[in-house]
Design a protein that fits this description.
Length: 879
């Protein structure tokens, strides 16, 4: 059986504590790319004295066992049972010492899990269950112990030898080899283990913590990237300071390492004091990285740093609790970014991400609660639901309790659980107990999947000066759960007059009115809020700051939306109103297009855009967000049966019509922002670039656009402006695009990260011909199917962000993509599974496409020895 295949389903309710304490783990690595020898020694102590004999259960995967002894007695195959990835030594009656020696082969590990080779250096990835590919061990997060790690290797090939914690010794051994010994004083689960060995360059700084600890900060990269680490270092220092100031949390060791690699399945990893990062989230220089890249680096550096407390010091009891550390840490990194940049812009981007990635997941075959009840392959549950929806649920505690109450809860959480492996229930209990409130019903958010819909209706009684808001919540059944219960929904509300003034809010029975946002809390299926002293029929500003992760259904008139767009005090509501207006306009044209009626531009949308373009007060980045039309996937989500081509045509039509009608406004704004100043990294400069480049993307729909884009491309001193111009030329099919693309290629051909952008720009080009471009690009020297970043840039982007390409009516996109899933499955099952999920929502398309996608899913499912990763995804989709 191929590794990982036919894994059985694991249930949360089956959790059993591990009966043994592992006292200390000593690891000795004889490092080599072809073969690495791993010797491990650990002591098992029965947790309960006088307990009956217990099995010792270890996990291991693809390990060549050299030897195994228990209390120095050699074990033979008759002394244990190996089944799947577990080895059981039955009925051990006393405390004992286990010693093992195994051989592993990092050079041929293409799954990038466990110990593997990246370029010339070796590194590890253990979360969630990669440690079992390194040595036999109880590879579960509730088994925590201290590690002492000795790395021994050839000195010239592997001059740098890193592991967790503090360096406690080093020396030379025979034959040009050397060794380094590391000790991590904090007990940790195996998923936080890391080692790095190879030739790496170093950028160093330091940070003095509030209590005076001088922490060495070291970023290791391949030598050619040494001039691209400044922003990452600055982000790390900002993260450390921010966590002290906002969360009262200090770093706990004298050393903090970050290593950047081009070969990584995910974004980054929080291994104790030895973070490993996908190089996208470390390396940046103004001419190679966009503003979005800079912001991504800040956010991810923050995220991994914040894990030191939320994840490492307090970890998860089992993998069903993943959101305990991930939802909380995403919440923390969002708040960090909000405090560092623009809070409003960050919030809008988070909401956009939730709607475009998590809502579809919650409405498809992989729907699951933020704390799943079962899984076959845990790697498939590092999802938008666990992370992003999980973060919104942490945000709701914060909204309900306020910053002070939330921080009280955090404090109690750490007082109770520092050094432990705990559950989501423990977190909820700390929040409830610290604030003396009952959060039992709030706890339903952990166990219920699906996106709640809140139907809002209102009634204004002019005679009585009363305004009634009625909210009804309903969560549609998901594939995993039929019956849904009402949830606790924080409901932040404002009421505006038609001319945009904030009205005083006074609920019936209250003594006085309060002006500004009111936080109400809904927890029943239906609730009514009656406001008195209401002088005119108000425009409701609902779920301000997106106070709960729901779909808000309210029948706004175009005039009401216009009022919100122009005047609301809440940036999220303004943006959302603009999105609603754009969605309505585009979907209406989609219908007209399907009926063969001529499409037209809505007068209200035109007026709203004119208003936005004339706004010189608001943050330019917010204006840019408001003018970014909803993407095709989000529009598709609003239809019962997705009309792939209709959506594309209608959206293009609206964009072009807006551009033509408002060309003067776009041009004026563009010119004002295109001030020839040299690049700056400030939030303000980024905001100006974002508005400038949105204006350019509209101008590219007019005759004036091409020359502007060419001029911008030629004069640009930064990747944000370069990419916006080049991408614009490609999308509009400009004859200048080809030359510009090949010049870009010529300049950056040996730069892995910049070439990813080059692949992306070509893979997103709409239309059925793009599949041929993508197929050709797979032969480009800069592409490698073994490299996850390349796969995501070319294949992932084509399948997930190019609807008219992937969903070409002849099935060519589907067939190509299924071939890639199958090809990848033999190399890297985790990446293959991510790619396979592009087919997840096949049932939402027309009969022809449905049949084509189903056929491809079946073709994948029937591959002999398919990995457990891909098999779980495609079989869920087919069920
Ligand atoms: C910001 O969560 C938000 C999410 C697991 C790997 C990083 O720290 C992590 C790791 C996956 C998906 C998203 C993220 C991470 C992983 C991530 C990174 C930065 N514990 Br899989
Ligand atoms: Zn994380």
């Amino acid at each position: 059986m191929k590794e990982g295949s036919a894994r059985k389903v694991i249930y949360r309710k089956d959790y059993k504590a591990y009966p043994w304490e592992v006292n200390q783990l000593d690891l000795y690595f004889e490092i080599g790319s072809e073969t690495t020898i791993v010797r491990a020694e650990m002591e098992f102590l029965l947790k309960e004295v006088d307990s009956a004999p217990q099995d010792i259960v270890l996990n291991g995967s693809n390990l060549e066992l050299v030897s195994m002894t228990l209390n120095d007695r050699a074990l033979s195959a008759a002394d244990y049972v190996i089944e799947d990835e577990t080895l059981t030594i039955p009925d051990v009656s006393q405390n004992c010492v286990l010693k093992t020696e195994v051989r592993i082969h990092p050079g041929s590990n293409s799954a990038l899990e466990g110990l593997y080779l990246s370029g010339e250096f070796l590194l590890t990835q253990c979360e969630a269950q990669g440690f079992r590919k390194i040595t036999w061990f109880p590879d579960r997060p509730d088994v925590m112990t201290t590690y002492r790690v000795t790395l021994e290797a050839d000195q010239s090939a592997f001059p740098v030898l890193l592991s967790n914690g503090n360096q406690v010794g080093s020396g030379e051994s025979a034959d040009g080899r050397h060794w380094v010994c590391w000790e991590d004083p904090f007990p940790k689960p195996s998923y936080l283990f890391a080692l790095v060995a190879g030739q790496l360059a170093l950028v160093e700084d330091h940070f003095i913590t509030r209590s005076g600890r001088d922490v060495a900060l070291r970023i290791y990269v391949e030598a050619e990237n040494i001039d691209r680490c400044e922003h990452a270092m600055e982000s790390l220092i900002n993260s450390m300071r921010w966590d002290e100031n906002r969360f009262d949390l200090e770093y706990d060791l004298d050393i903090y390492h970050i290593v950047a690699t081009n070969d990584f399945n995910m974004g980054a990893m929080e291994n104790k004091s030895l973070n490993i990062f996908n190089s996208i989230y470390v390396l940046a220089r103004p001419d190679t990285a966009t503003d979005a890249d800079y912001q991504g680096i800040e956010g991810v550096i923050g995220h991994e740093y914040f894990h030191n407390w939320t994840g490492n010091r307090v970890t998860c009891q089992d993998w069903f609790q993943l959101t305990l550390k991930e939802g909380l840490t995403v919440f923390r990194d969002e708040e960090f970014s909000a405090d560092m940049q623009s809070r409003a812009v960050k919030r809008i981007r988070v909401v956009r991400g939730l709607r475009s990635r998590q809502f579809p997941e919650d409405d498809g075959p992989m729907a699951h609660p933020i704390r799943p009840d079962h899984y076959a392959e845990i790697n498939n549950f590092y999802t938008a639901t666990v992370y992003q929806k999980g973060a919104t649920i942490i945000r709701m505690y914060h909204t309900l309790l306020g910053e002070t109450g939330f921080q009280k809860g955090m404090k109690l959480y750490f007082e109770r659980h520092d050094g432990q492996a705990v559950t989501c229930d423990d977190f909820l209990a700390a929040m409830a107990d610290a604030n003396n409130i009952n959060l039992d019903r709030f706890g339903r958010w952990y166990s219920q999947s699906g996106t709640p819909q809140v139907h809002v209706s209102d009634h204004y009684d002019a005679g009585a000066q009363k305004y009634r808001l009625t909210l009804r919540q309903h969560t549609p059944a998901t594939h995993d759960q039929k019956d849904k219960q009402p949830l606790v929904l924080p409901f932040a509300l404002g009421l505006l007059t038609a001319s945009g003034d904030e009205m005083p809010l006074q609920l019936e029975g209250e003594a006085e009115a309060v002006t500004g946002t009111r936080l109400l809390v809904m927890q029943e299926e239906q609730e009514e809020f009656i406001f008195v002293g209401v002088s005119e029929d108000p425009v409701p500003s609902l779920f301000r700051d997106y106070s709960a992760p729901v779909k808000i259904l309210f029948d706004y008139s175009p005039e009401q939306l216009a009022t919100l767009i122009a005047y609301d005090s809440d940036a999220y509501v303004r943006w959302d109103a603009a999105q609603r207006m754009a969605v309505n306009a585009i979907l209406e044209q989609c219908t007209r297009h399907a009926q063969g009626t001529e499409m037209r531009l809505d007068a209200s949308l035109l007026k709203a855009f004119r208003g936005i373009l004339s706004d010189h007060q608001a943050d330019p980045a917010l204006l840019a967000e408001a003018m970014t039309l909803p993407d095709e996937a989000y529009l598709a989500d609003q239809m019962d049966v997705v009309d792939v081509d209709g959506i594309h045509t209608a959206r293009e039509f609206i964009k072009k019509a807006l551009a033509r009608e408002l060309e003067v406004f776009f041009a004026e704004r563009y010119t004002g922002l295109n001030d020839g100043q040299s690049y700056q990294k400030t939030a303000e400069a980024m905001a100006r670039r974002s508005l400038k480049n949105i204006c350019m993307s509209y101008l590219l729909e007019t005759d004036a656009g091409e020359s502007l884009a060419v001029a911008q491309l030629e004069s640009s001193d930064n990747m944000t402006d370069t990419l916006a111009a080049l991408q614009g030329l490609i999308l509009t099919g400009s004859p200048r695009a080809e030359k510009a693309l090949s010049e870009f290629e010529g300049k950056w051909q040996s730069d892995a990260l910049v070439m990813d952008k080059w692949f992306v720009m070509q893979a997103v080009k709409p239309g059925k011909d793009t599949v041929n471009t993508v197929r050709k690009l797979m032969d480009h020297p800069a592409f490698s199917i073994q490299n996850p970043n390349k796969v995501r840039a070319l294949i992932g982007v084509f399948a997930m962000l190019n609807p008219t390409g992937f969903h070409a009516a002849d099935g060519s996109g589907y067939a190509f993509h299924a071939d890639r899933v199958i090809e990848l499955d033999g190399l890297n099952p985790q990446i293959a599974a991510r790619m396979a999920s592009a087919f997840n929502r096949w049932k939402r398309y027309d009969e022809g496409r449905k049949e084509l996608m189903k056929t491809e899913l079946q073709r994948i499912a029937s591959v002999p020895d398919l990995s457990g990763d891909v098999s779980e995804i495609v079989n869920n989709a087919l069920r």
